[in-house]
Design goal:
290 residues, alpha/beta, pyruvate-formate lyase- activating enzyme, 11 strands, 17% strand, globular, binds iron/sulfur cluster
């Protein structure tokens, strides 16, 4: 089990590491940064090159509690370099551990679709695609054809307004802005950030037109019956500008582990309670800026 700071999941499971950048959303990939930083160490012997980790394959059998699990947070399970037989092994583990809910997110939905038609994906395997800009809206159309019980979109890092889309048939959408130290570079935050740094207040503030992009997705989600989760506005760290939209924190989820019923926001509050929010952000959360 690997702990994670990603607040829409509980733990990560990485039977594979390594990937190749494929679209604009990958530009500042955290997995690439971490894997290259620790290249040659035990965890990343090959840096960000493909690394199969069969010794991690049976980890889900060892977890006592039903868990929400992000699969391959350090790779993309549908990267064509991952051998098909190896993918089938990962699939088998998910099938044999129905007590867990697995979140599989890809920027390569073509292979996800192909495999979903070839193999039976279990109900506890959530299939998601990243859509960071309009250029990649085709991923949404492919996802709609994938044979999976739960389908979701990660619109993070959102780089532009996605316009009038339909989320019919999509169970869940996560939204979020770019985060990391690279946002301190003005030329980066100008182009990629949903936020601006305000030198007077020393706070990251959501840009008004970017708030509209997120509102648009929230309203579409509401119209189409899709659960909505606003993860972060982004900035120098994920929640540097908080998570509120119009004075509300959106934590909706399709389901949570160990129960076949719907949404449980209490579960997310539990995760958030563990997070450290610095003094400035506390005042942000208390509504002083809204
Ligand atoms: S697909 Fe994901 S893991 Fe792979 S380079 Fe892009 S952001 Fe990183």
């Amino acid at each position: 089990m690997e702990k994670t700071g990603i607040i829409w999941t509980e733990k990560t499971w990485n039977p594979v590491t390594g990937c190749q950048k494929i679209s604009q959303g990958c530009k500042f990939c955290y997995a690439d940064t971490i894997a290259k930083k620790y290249a040659g160490h035990a965890a990343f012997p090959n840096g960000f090159d493909l690394t199969l980790r069969p010794h991690k394959m049976r980890d889900p059998f060892k977890w006592d509690e039903p868990s929400l699990v992000f699969v391959n947070s350090m790779s993309d399970l549908f990267w064509e370099k991952i051998p098909e037989e190896y993918f089938v092994q990962v699939l088998e583990v998910m099938k044999k551990t129905p007590q867990h809910e697995y979140q599989v997110l890809t920027k390569r939905p073509e292979l996800m679709l192909e495999y979903s038609l070839k193999y039976e994906f279990p109900e506890n395997m959530w299939c998601g695609v990243t859509i960071e800009d309009k250029k990649n809206l085709h991923r949404l159309e492919i996802l709609k054809k994938v044979r999976a019980k739960i389908k979701f979109i990660s619109a993070e890092p959102l780089l532009e307004d996605l316009g009038s889309i339909s989320l019919k048939g999509i169970d869940w959408i996560i939204t979020g802005g770019e985060s990391g130290f690279h946002l301190w570079k003005r030329e980066v935050s100008l182009v990629r950030g949903l936020v601006d740094y305000d030198k007077d207040t020393k706070l990251w503030i959501p840009k008004p037109h970017c708030i509209e992009w997120i509102r648009n997705l929230r309203d579409i989600a509401k119209r189409d019956g899709t659960f909505f989760f606003h993860k972060q506005w982004g900035g120098s760290f994920p929640e540097a500008a908080g998570r509120e939209l119009d004075g509300k924190t959106y934590n909706e989820m399709p389901k949570y582990p160990g129960d076949k019923l719907e949404i449980n926001n209490e579960y997310l509050k539990h995760i958030e309670g563990k997070r450290v929010i610095d003094k400035k952000q506390e005042s942000f959360h208390q509504g002083k800026l809204f």
